[in-house]
Amino acid sequence: MKFDSPAGINAIDTERVIGKPIDRIDGPPKVTGTAPYAYERHDVAPNAGYGWMVGSAIAKGRVKAIDTRVAEQAPGVLAIVTAENAGPLTKGDFNTARLLGGPEIEHYDQALALVVAETLEQARDAAKLVRIDYERAEGKFDLNAERANAVKPGDSFGNTPDTQAGDFDAAFARAAVKIDQTYTTPDHSHAMMEPHATTAAWNGDRLTLWTANQMIAWGKGDMAKTLGIARDKVQLVSPYIGGGFGAKLFLRADALLAALGARAAGRPVKVALARPQIPNNTTHRPATIQRIRLGADKNGVIDAIAHESWSGDLPGGGPEVAALQTRLLYGGRNRLTRHRLATLDLPEGNAMRAPGEAVGMLALEVAMDELAETCGVDPVELRIRNDVQYDPEKGPERPFSSRKFVECLRAGADRFGWSKRNARPGQVREGEWWIGMGMASAFRNNIVTKSGARVGIDGQGRVTVETDMTDIGTGTYTIMAQTAAEMLGVDVDRVTVKLGDSAFPASAGSGGQWGANSSTAGVFAACTALRRKLAEKADLDPETARFEGGEIVGPSGGRSLASVAGREGLVAEDAIEFGDLTERYAQATFGAHFCEVAVNAYTGETRVRRMGGAFAAGRILNPKTARSQVIGAMTMGVGAALMEELVVDTRFGYFVNHDMAEYHVPVHADIPEQDVLFIDELDDKSSPMKAKGVGELGICGAGAAVANAIYNATGVRLREYPLTLDKVIDKLTMV
Question: Whole-model pTM?
Answer without folding.
Answer: 0.97
